[in-house]
Amino acid sequence: MLEVLTLFLFNIIVYNIPLLYGTTGEIMTEKAGSLNLGVEGTMAIGAVAGYLVGAKTDSLFVACLVSFIASGLVGLLFSFLTVTLQANQNVTGLTITTFGVAFYYFIGNALSNSQGGWPKFSGTALERQSQAIHIPGLSDIPFVGKALFSHNILVYAGIVIAILMWLYFKKTVPGLKLRAIGENPGAADSLGVNVAMYKYIHIIVGSGIMGLGGLYMGLNMGGTFEGSNCWINGYGWISIALVIFANWNPAKALLGTLVFGFFNTLRVQNAALAYTFPKTLGWLTNIPSHFFSALPFIITLLVLITSSLSKKNKSGEPQAIGRNYYREDR
Amino acid sequence: MRKYHLVRRADAKIQRTLIYYGIGLLVSLGIGAILLAALGINPFEYYGRMLTIGLVGNRYGYKSIEGLLKILVPLLITSLALSLSFKMRFWNIGGEGEFLIGAIAAAIVAFNSSGMPNFVTVVLMCLAAMLSSGIIGVAIAALKVKFNTNETLMTLMINYIMLYVIRYLGDTKADWNFFLREDSERPIFGSFPDSAIMSGIPLGKFKLLWSVIIAILLTVIIYIYLKFTKQGYEISVVGDSSATAKYAGMNVGKIVLRTMFISSALIGLAAALTVSSAGTISDTITNDVGWTGIIVAWLSKLNVPAVFVTSILISILQYGCQAAATQYPAIDVNFADLLQGIILFSVLVADFAANFRIVKKEEAKNA
Hints:
- The complex is a heterodimer.
- By secondary structure, chain A is mainly alpha-helical.
- Chain A has one domain: ABC transporter involved in vitamin B12 uptake, BtuC.
- Chain A has 14 helices and two strands, in the order αααααβαβαααααααα.
- In chain A, strands 1-2 form a two-stranded antiparallel sheet.
- In chain A, α1 packs antiparallel against α10 (about 195-220) and α1 (about 1-30) packs antiparallel against α12 (about 250-275).
- By secondary structure, chain B is mainly alpha-helical.
- Helix content of chain B is about 70%, strand content about 5%.
- Chain B has helices at about 15-40, 45-50, 60-85, 95-110, 120-145, 150-170, 210-230, 230-240, 240-245, 250-280, 290-300, 305-325, 335-355, 360-365, and strands at about 5-10, 200-205, 205-210, 355-360.
- In chain B, the strands form two sheets. Chain B has a two-stranded antiparallel sheet. In chain B, strands 2-3 form a two-stranded antiparallel sheet.
- In chain B, α12 packs antiparallel against α13 (about 335-355).
- Chain B is globular, with a radius of gyration of 23 Å.
- The chains are: A mainly alpha, B mainly alpha.
- Chains A and B meet through α4, α11 and α14 of A and β1, α6, α11 and α13 of B.
């Protein structure tokens, strides 16, 4: 009985950390005043590039590095088009998603039809390196130990990234300047902040972080190419929703990942829970799984409406989000 | 100090824009050719097969045209609809969701229409779809106008909520669920009765569906609406500057609500025509027109005749990739999406080159 709950808690974390990567990456981008709707595509490219090179070199470190760089390049493309060439952010972002997911399928189909086929995952060093690390002592705590302290390295890295990003925004001068750009780029520019450079750096780093989340998803799926579904499978879009739910705060993104992850896991495991606790949770089987899938989007819709209704402006939404900054228009 | 900076060209010539766009298109096809060659496929043969959409040496060539038109009609109408809202700088990226709402509404009429006359049923399907999609559009516009709720993110959420609604309908076997086939144990969407199937004018073996004629008529009507009516003029003023529109005495809120109703209702209409031509409904019925429509609208710079031409080109690209996939199994329809993405990236660069120029600092001071 307790095992079911431990497994539930464990799965919330292990299957939803990619959301944290996608969300923190997008928060960094949006704090620079840019709305990048290409999370799904950026994650897809990071996943496929990182996995293939990682499998070739048989090293998780190389896989992470390559997926960060590949997705960073997508971020560079986004910054070049929207910051330097002043292209529309919505259209550019959506095209990155179309392009990135299509790129995933293009490579996937080509490899599946080739002689060598898709590179194997099981039995490789890459698989061993991405297995769970049991933190001695902590992972032996009954019930929560396995759920919280025996995960693969990318889980811990994602949490560290979120905390570091929170500190960066809150406590450092570059973080403060970045937030100023997101609120009012004209004002930041007049104070001598190099707006374009800040935007470039943070969009690229943000995209790179998304790419790591994509790679994580590929590893989660055992690295097998599935023709019908992309590895990312909508997590990029949930991440965009989660940014709003987390109120553009990386620390709250940790909490948000648990909340959205809870529903996501409930969707898969509602039958197991209902079976183990027939009296208290038997009703779970009556709720269609589609409802749990839609719930993150429904919640975000409600958050969007209520936060715009409230008079107090406590929202962390950058004021200049989605609008390009062109000096001469000032 | 930076030595160079950007200056917006005062004289944006249409010829220059077209030439730059043409170069962008060629560069994209070139990148696509490199990718194809990397897979050991002769790009000229592939492109040849793609651009002729399987017409050459095919006894059933008319089927290719029918298939192409089935892709074109929803894409054209959706792109036109999205252009209307983009012209106001209202970022309606909820084309997918609005399309699905329309499709579900039309299907409700269709599944309950057996015995009704065909014409009446199809008209009712269109009206139901337009009304339900339009209402969602107005609701989002109202939140934007009243409380400044972010419309981009709102419409994005609608897309996914509606996707799970239609999947729920398609997966749930129940007495109330008339969307599913009754004679099947597994949940499968049923087929419409004959009364709800789009009819057309037979031209030999080829059947010209009414939906195609409606789409072309709509293109003309929207062109006239935007170019020659007061309401069309108001849309462009609001898009240029809502402050200007306000000072000119226009009721900006009303214009936004009205235009969003028209925009979403048109997407609903596209959905009704699509499900009626398909004779059924599914969770992939949108064929991503909500997303592709945004790319088409943007490639066309929200200009109606350009939307018409671009929709045809993108449809050829998509249908051509489907047709070529029979010959080249390693390359499926996703290659069309890949090319679409590359084309849009190059055109964004071309658009910039056509509208800005880079000047040296000193030169700019003298100017």
